Amino acid sequence: MDQVRPCKLISAPVANSKRHREVLLGRYELDRLLGCGTFAKVYLARSVSDGAAVAIKVLDKPEVVGTGMARSVLTEVAAMRRLAHPNILKLHEVMATRSKIYLVMEHAPGGDLLACVARRGGLLPEHAARRYFQQLVSALHYCHARGVAHRDLKPQNLLLDRDGNLKISDFGLAALPEQLRDGRLQTACGTPAYTAPEVIRRKGYDGAKADAWSCGVILFVLLAGSLPFDDANLALMYRRIHKRDYAFPKWVSPPARRLLYRLLDPNPETRITIAVLMEHPWLKRSLSLDSQLSSIVDQPPTTRDYITPVMNAFDIILLSLGLDLSGLFDEAKNKKEKRFSSTHSIEKIMERISETGGKLGFVVDRRKGSAGGMVAAGLSRQGSILSVEVSEVASPLMLVEMRLEDCSGSSSSGADDEGFSWEDLKAELGDMVFAWHDSGDS
After folding, report:
1. Which of 13, 267, 297, 392 could be joined to 307 by an S-S link, Cβ 3.0–4.6 Å?
2. Long-range contacts of range 240-249, CB-CB < 8 Å, 24 or more positions apart?
3. Of these residues, 152, 265, 417, 438, which one is catalytic?
4. Binding-site residues for ATP, please?
């Protein structure tokens, strides 16, 4: 079942030689060897044009063709070209000569997640595991929405960038929409300890549901420090899987245990899906703004695929209760601009604000991506506009900024516009709000 891979990266880089560095096709200066496999070598390289670091996978074309690995390489390229997400390793370009194929990819200097866990004693505290798991689930939700199933998820294929953000890599066994037969996948593939039980039955399976199983195994490894099912005898291992024969270490919390029970469900029809997992309470667990700030300083989080780049710690300090200094320069701003944080999804926030605006006589007249990628909307009524911007502070915490302006674009004067009350707006938003962040607001 386990297939030979085009390249498996090794953890320790080979020492850099002092020889003159080769310039590849006039575009990239090759540096040290990062890893090697049966059919490929991966080098650190730098762009000649701007000096940016990249990783280049070099494949021997005759060997790839002669061993039947061409399809795997083509699948990897096809999958990565259609995916653009902050937690998926980016494929910059593909180059080729008569004898070589070069895949120029984003460089992830943090190594793989398995090595990261090993450096931290073999398991992670729950808050750290949750952060990596949030990023993994967000990226998979994005992949599945585009018809791509990874099918070989494991910590070794989850790389880390220089800021500690997770990057899914190695799409050589990915399934694309055009590979479906009657809506199902047929090929048994992957790594046995992480592969869903339905994959080996050869009766057809859903790639997205198989990925959800692999996520459960990965989360178990991060929290428990061991595999839930691990046996050299595959028949015995899958017998244990169907009996749910595994044990949690005592330090795994009850909420995490309940989530793992739903992920490690041998029945794919009742197993929790990635889409439902996106809204799961354990994944969206709320923290105080101070806790979010601490986690950002220690471990910078990443964004979801549909959200603005994450704010840095200084931005959060400026927006925190009692620390916004903007009032010293714009006295009217505090009167006509309100901010709140929420742990709901960006779609739910915008939907609630639109409903609330409708009750107060506003009509949504635009929805767009503003500068920096923030999601914005304008709610207008005669004489005034309520502009709204939503950005991610630290997953899953969103910051919502609302500003009441007159139709000329300037802030309305006075505490309340005619017929408009911030208190009415707050009351309507209700449980959508995690905390208000304006001086004097509770």
Report:
1. 392
2. 241/197, 241/266, 242/197, 242/266, 246/220, 248/224, 249/223, 249/224, 249/225
3. 152
4. 57
Task: Give 353-364 pLDDT, tens digit per residue.
Answer: 888 888 877 776
* Beta-bridge partner residues of 94: 103
Residue 152 annotated as catalytic: yes
Known binding-site residues equal 57
Maximum Cα–Cα distance across the chain: 76
Distance CA(208)–CA(215), nearest Å, equals: 11
Give all domains of the chain, ordered by start, each with its CATH number: 23-106 (3.30.200.20), 113-277 (1.10.510.10), 289-436 (3.30.310.80)
Tell the burial category of 229 from Cβ atoms under 10 Å away from its Cβ (0-12, 13-18, 19+). buried
pLDDT of residue 407: 61
Nearest one of 154, 153, 89, 87 to 115, comparing CA atoms:
154
Q: Which of 323, 343, 361, 334 is nearest to 400 (CA)?
A: 343
Predicted model pTM: 0.62
CA–CA separation, 239 and 70 (whole Å): 35
Which residue from 390, 398, 389 is spatially nearest to 286, judged by alpha carbons? 398
Contact between 383 and 407 (Cβ < 8 Å):
yes
* pLDDT for the residue 347: 82
Measure the CA angle with vertex 375, ends 371 and 377; round to 5°: 105
Q: What is the pLDDT of residues 178-227, one digit of tens each?
A: 777 777 888 888 889 999 999 988 788 999 999 999 999 999 999 999 99
